[in-house]
Design a protein that fits this description.
This protein is of the alpha/beta class and 222 residues long. The chain has helices at 17-33, 43-49, 54-61, 67-86, 96-105, 118-127, 148-158, 171-179, 194-197, 209-213; strands spanning 3-7, 109-114, 134-139, 163-168, 183-187, 202-204. It contains ten helices and six strands; from the N terminus they run E-H-H-H-H-H-E-H-E-H-E-H-E-H-E-H.
Length: 222
């Protein structure tokens, strides 16, 4: 039996906040230049819905725009995010590599399950060389339902996972763990909400706490 840890990306491993505002502002500045937006960039509204799939983000941020306009804005936003990642403007949360090295050395299998798009996730994984520790990265694009629980179920079934945890900062991560019989570990990081974290089995303030929770091969939470 191999114990596995499935990590969310945004707000859990990657400090999305460092590139979010500038990238979102670029997208809305483009809309302003086309006469399709006349207000400030709705950064706070986006913060409030961080963690949901991007199609739902644009439904919320651009409710009066056409599907075509949302898709064009989404594509431009993604382009800006990826460029900012490749320019080194983003950052992982502290101690990600240290934690991953510890877990890998102690026999844990590591995965990423994110509502981010494939190209975006690949940019982060490539820039920070996370694939030296991560078995596979899964995007919500892999699942027709766009449901995080279904995405985690896909990973569980593909790799025959019988023991482990989902680590994330939002309610969708917590539910994905519980719906698949895994431990839910909530991260009290930038985008977390206390009412959502209250449903987690365990809450952490920093990633290094996982070294204490998972100290050695095939051992679980004490």
């Amino acid at each position: 039996m191999t114990q596995s840890l499935i990590f969310d990306m945004d707000g859990t491993l990657f400090q999305t906040d460092k590139i979010l505002e500038v990238s979102l502002d670029d997208a809305f500045e483009r809309l302003r230049s086309e006469g399709k937006w006349y207000e400030e960039t709705p950064i706070e509204k986006y913060r409030g819905i961080m963690g949901v799939p991007l199609p739902k983000v644009w439904e919320a941020l651009l409710p009066d725009h056409s599907l075509e306009e949302r898709e064009q804005t989404d594509a431009f936003f993604l382009e800006r995010l990826i460029q900012n990642i490749r320019n080194g403007k983003g950052a992982l949360y502290p101690h990600v590599q240290e934690l991953f090295s510890h877990l890998k050395e102690n026999g844990f299998s590591l995965y990423i399950a994110s509502n981010g798009l494939i190209e975006y996730l690949n940019a982060i994984v490539d820039y920070y060389a996370l694939d030296q520790w991560i078995t596979e990265t899964f995007s919500i694009q892999h699942i027709e339902s766009l449901n995080k629980s279904d995405l985690v179920r896909h990973i569980v079934e593909k790799y025959e996972i019988t023991s482990g945890a989902v680590v994330g900062d939002r309610l969708s991560d917590i539910h994905a763990a519980k719906d698949n019989g895994l431990i839910s570990i909530g991260c009290r990081f930038d985008f977390a909400r206390e009412e959502e974290l209250a449903e987690a089995d365990v809450i952490i303030e920093g990633l290094l706490e996982l070294k204490m929770l998972f100290p050695a091969k095939k051992q679980g939470i004490k």
